[in-house]
Specification:
This protein is α/β, with parallel strands linked by helices. Helices cover 32% and strands 20% of the residues. It has helices at 16-29, 59-72, 90-98, 107-113, 164-175, 190-193, 208-212, 229-236, 261-273, 286-294, and strands spanning 2-6, 34-38, 51-54, 75-80, 101-104, 120-122, 145-150, 155-156, 159-160, 179-184, 199-202, 217-220, 240-244, 254-256. It has a six-stranded parallel β-sheet with strand order 2-1-3-4-5-6, sandwiched between helices. It has a six-stranded parallel β-sheet with strand order 11-10-7-12-13-14, sandwiched between helices. Helix 4 links the parallel strand 5 and strand 6 (120-122). The longest helix is centred in the N-terminal third of the chain and has 14 residues, at 16-29.
Amino acid sequence: MIRVVSTGGLPPPVGGVTVFLKYFSQAIRSKKHANHEFIKLRKLFLYHDSILHINCSNEVKRLVYVLIGKLFFDKVFIVKHGGEFELTSLLVKCSLFLVDGVFCLNQKVRDQLIGLGVKTFMHSTIFRENQFPGKVDSTRPTGREVLLYINNSSEKDRKSVYGADFILDCLDDIVAVCNLTIIDLSRSYRQKFEGRPGVSYIDEPQDFMRMVREFDLYIRPTRSDGMSVALLEAGLCGVKCLASDVVDRPGFVFTYELDNKDSFLGMLNYVLDYEGCPNVTGLSSIQDVLDVMRG
């Protein structure tokens, strides 16, 4: 029996990391020879035969968990969500050189670690062992209903990580060809989006997999990303996807050049008219992840 213990927790709050952990936990629990739980500090002395699975973006917190892991756990692994590591940070370097390996969610992060002597492994954010509802009816008429999801108001280079400012810049052209629904959990963009013609604004958490099935296209104009859970969920539901090329995207996702308005609008029109259905392939098996952890 292999026991994996993760930092973090299940939704709520709703976010890429918590939803990933939901799928990760479900996949491990589907295996008779494996068990998964979330870390409890009062049980540290019982974890000597377990594997610590760290999901932290904060450099200090991540290093603290790495040190705890080296003291109490059999092995320690980091999952890198979002963009690349800040390799100029001593805290980041210490974490990387102490762990048994790093699970990367896109090739851009993995390439960053080449030559550092860090063991890296790739896997998807949803696994073949997870169960999903069937795809939307492929015979329904193709419409022009588009969904945008904004989880928070974080910025990179003084621009919205979730691409809110880019969409605002393109908004008149977008609503000229489709109806746009925005889920804005940050509630930071209400005044800029709410009430605009052709725009529906929602600032409450939603069941994403249920909701995305009502749309013809999911757009993800992010400036930084890992392997988006939302893109995989949308694709598995049979919903077309358009995303920035800030990282390598799954093969079923249409992409446009980051920050290029003409590229985005051209692809938006193309994908809205495209009548095909996404074919999601390349999902990892949780068994491969467990085999890596066992070593």
